[in-house]
Design a protein that fits this description.
It contains 17 helices and 19 strands.
Length: 559
């Protein structure tokens, strides 16, 4: 069978736009003489749809769109289509909807496979919405039997995972049914998986190994079609794959872009393995560029504003924004205070020149003086301190949001994960904006990605890369006045945030004073209230701040 993997970028709730993509990719598959076209999980309505799934009108639109997709299979020479969608649930579980893979051919629905394993960890909350399937059944189209699965249903192989989240393995159940299939239906084992699997560092390698083990165990060709694109905080890498019975990847779609991958099932056994290692830095760049482009575009905007301080964080965000949106759609704004060095202003100007973006300077010295005068009755008799420091980024945030309101451009925040973790950021100040572009990058990763930004030509100035990082909110201030050096801090944060290790475990494994580790953890715990008011963070790690990390604000914390 000649199969086309249609790796598309759907938008949540854009039924007409998603249908247009499905139609376009189907027509491309017709040109490629494909007999079956496979689209990702929930391609018709977009993933994740969250509480939109609770709206009857949303589900009805999905059903109406599915009927139009089904009509695309009608007529001589038309391919069958396997596509993910949402349907009303009929079972007794009390859920309104079910997540389904619908197989269509000759203008009719041939089979419906409902998702059985509903993830409820990290960013996933599918048990909130979907009714789980009670059973699995093999499907047949154009004389070919196939085991159809939906995303998580293929991620519970007891021979691969040391610990499993579910007691049942849908693939294993389907393969038991395969064993009693009559010839010639059972001649070639074919497992199809439609996915909306979000990206994080290392995910590509895990996915390849897991699907490879699955194919080898069941002596089957496994096809995984993954959504690409970004919806809110989640970025989907695509990277759809075809894995042969020997466990090797024999065909792979592009990463972080739409693609159509066509293959012949008869050619899989003799195909040459495709090798591609994940370059974490390159993948981070591509993921964040896609995240910015889709967040801005899918929210109905075209332009972005970045406050340029001359520091490395804002420089990286600006570079990513230009790659995502084009230099004509990015506005840089410098807002120096009396504590800003001349080098910071010149570095910001040079960055803007290198990127080719519009750049304006709005000094805040006089505004800060006016605020200080107005606050004199409250500040009288006190020394310059945190209140005065925080007042400066809050003035900057107000100015950026005013420009945003006037121009219709979205403000991109520039805080990194190290700062957000420790609360080294100002609520309603430098945290103001629509999207936290690098909020899932530790400071050391910011430096690595900034060097990657300069891989072809000098974009981020050398001084920005080499000068000691500083918030420049008081004379001579440096980040190390408040935090350990980032090369010491970041491994601590990673172990605590992503691995949930204790202070004692971190201190022992990293050879650190446990008192230092406890002081850092205390900063993380005390800053939860800030993070819960932050802009959405583009997720590129296993555990990012936001919907996948849920902690109470009002709680007693023992470090």
């Amino acid at each position: 069978m000649r199969i086309a993997l249609a790796q598309i970028n759907p938008t949540v709730g854009d039924f007409s736009g998603n249908l247009k993509k499905i139609r376009e990719f189907t027509e491309r598959a017709v040109v490629e003489r494909a007999e079956l076209v496979i689209f990702p999980e929930l391609a018709i309505c977009g993933y994740p749809a969250a509480d939109l799934l609770e709206k009857a009108s949303f589900v009805q639109r999905a059903e109406e769109t599915l009927a139009k997709v089904c009509a695309l299979t009608q007529g001589e020479g038309r391919p069958a289509i396997l596509c993910g969608s949402v349907m009303p649930a009929e079972g007794p579980a009390g859920k309104h909807v079910k997540n389904v893979a619908v197989l269509m051919d000759s203008g009719e629905i041939k089979s419906i496979q409902q998702k059985m394993l509903l993830p409820f960890y990290d960013v996933f909350d599918e048990q909130r919405y979907f009714e789980p399937a009670a059973r699995q059944s093999l499907s047949v189209v154009k004389g070919q039997a196939m085991a159809v699965t939906v995303c998580e249903d293929a991620w519970n192989d007891k021979m691969f995972w040391q610990e499993r989240n579910y007691a049942v393995d849908p693939v294993e159940e389907l393969m038991k049914q395969w064993a009693v299939l009559p010839q010639p239906l059972s001649k070639q084992r074919l497992i199809l998986n439609i996915s909306a699997s979000p990206y994080w560092h290392g995910k590509t390698e895990v996915r390849r190994k897991m699907i490879g083990a699955l194919a080898k165990r069941h002596r089957a060709t496994v096809v995984l079609v993954n959504q690409v694109g970004a919806n809110d905080s989640l970025i989907f890498d695509g990277d759809s794959i075809v894995v042969g019975p020997a466990g090797a990847v024999v065909a792979q779609a592009k990463a972080f872009t739409e693609d159509l991958l066509v293959f012949e099932t008869d050619d899989v056994a003799g195909a040459v393995a495709v090798e591609r290692q994940e370059d974490q830095t390159a993948f981070s760049w591509d993921a964040l560029v896609l995240g910015v482009r889709d967040y801005v575009g899918k929210c109905g905007f075209k332009k972005a504003i970045v406050g340029l301080s001359g520091g490395i964080d804002s420089a990286l965000v600006a570079a990513l924004a230009v790659e995502a949106l084009g230099k004509e759609n990015v506005q840089g704004v410098g807002m120096p205070s009396e504590f800003s060095s001349g080098g910071s202003v010149s570095d910001a100007e040079l960055l803007a020149k290198n990127l080719g973006i519009s750049f304006s300077i709005v000094p805040i010295r006089e505004v800060f003086t006016e605020f200080s005068t107005a606050l004199e009755p409250f500040f009288a008799g006190t020394s310059f301190g945190l209140a005065e420091e925080n007042l400066q980024p809050r003035i900057r945030g107000t100015l950026l949001m005013a420009i945003s309101n006037k121009t219709g451009a979205l403000v991109l925040t520039t805080g990194n994960k190290s700062e957000m973790a420790c609360g080294y950021c100002t609520l309603y100040g430098d945290m103001v904006g629509a999207l936290a572009v690098i909020g899932d990058l530790y400071k050391t990763e910011v430096y690595a990605l900034s060097r990657y930004a300069n891989r072809e030509r000098r974009i981020i100035p050398e001084d920005t890369l080499t000068k000691p990082p500083s918030a420049e909110l008081r004379p001579g201030q440096k980040d190390t006045d408040s935090l350990p050096p980032y090369e010491v801090l970041d491994p601590m944060l990673r172990d605590y945030i992503e691995e949930y290790r204790s202070a004692e475990e971190i201190a022992e494994s990293q050879g650190l004073d446990v008192a230092l580790v406890r002081s850092v953890i205390k900063l993380v715990e005390r800053s939860e209230y800030k993070r819960q008011q932050a802009a959405p963070v583009l997720k590129v790690s296993k555990k990012s701040f936001g919907m996948g990390r849920r902690f109470p604000i009002a709680a007693k914390r023992e470090v």
